[in-house]
């Protein structure tokens, strides 16, 4: 396993190439540019609003109904299209696991 460390000044974490969100490591301001590295490439996202430490931002557009991916795993589905740089939280995602209504809608499949 490769040895990795968090560099001073890092503002967010993206852990997996599948991720469409980043987790913030500090409070941020609207219009601020957040940079992260993944697979030896650098990416920049401009924040659409102020967002607090520990919350998530979209690092790419997430269409309505599509999975929100964090650490390579789905953590829910977008309830509406989420723009890159927008806060991702309970106001625009919904859980998709253990939903009895979804099981019935999908012919017995949970997703």
Overview of the structural elements:
The chain is mainly β and about 110 residues long. About 5% of the residues lie in helices and about 30% in strands. The protein is built from 1 helix and 9 strands. The chain has one helix at about 100-105, and strands spanning about 10-15, 20-25, 35-40, 40-45, 55-60, 65-70, 75-80, 85-90, 95. The protein has a 4-stranded antiparallel beta sheet with strand order 1-2-5-8, with no helix packed on it. Strands 6-7-9 form a 3-stranded antiparallel beta sheet, with no helix packed on it. Strands 3-4 form a two-stranded antiparallel ribbon. Strand 6 (about 65-70) and strand 7 (about 75-80) form a beta hairpin. The longest helix has 6 residues, at about 100-105. The relative contact order is 0.17.
Percentage of residues in strands: 25-35%
Task: List the helices and strands in order.
Answer: EEEEEEEEEH
Q: Largest sheet, if any?
A: 4 strands, antiparallel
Number of strands: 9
Secondary-structure topology with pairs:
Blueprint: E1 12-13, E2 21-24, E3 33-38, E4 41-46, E5 56-58, E6 67-70, E7 73-78, E8 87-88, E9 93-94, H1 100-105
Antiparallel strand pairs: 1-2, 2-5, 3-4, 5-8, 6-7, 7-9
């Amino acid at each position: 396993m490769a040895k990795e460390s968090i560099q001073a000044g890092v503002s967010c974490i993206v852990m997996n190439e599948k991720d469409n969100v980043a987790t913030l490591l500090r409070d941020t301001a609207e219009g601020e540019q957040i940079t992260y590295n993944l697979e030896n490439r650098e990416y920049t996202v401009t924040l659409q609003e102020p967002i607090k430490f520990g919350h998530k931002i979209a690092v790419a557009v997430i269409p309505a109904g599509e999975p929100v991916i964090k650490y390579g795993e789905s953590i829910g589905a977008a309830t509406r299209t989420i723009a890159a740089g927008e806060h991702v939280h309970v106001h625009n995602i919904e859980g998709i696991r253990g939903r009895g209504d979804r099981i019935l809608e999908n012919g017995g499949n949970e997703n």
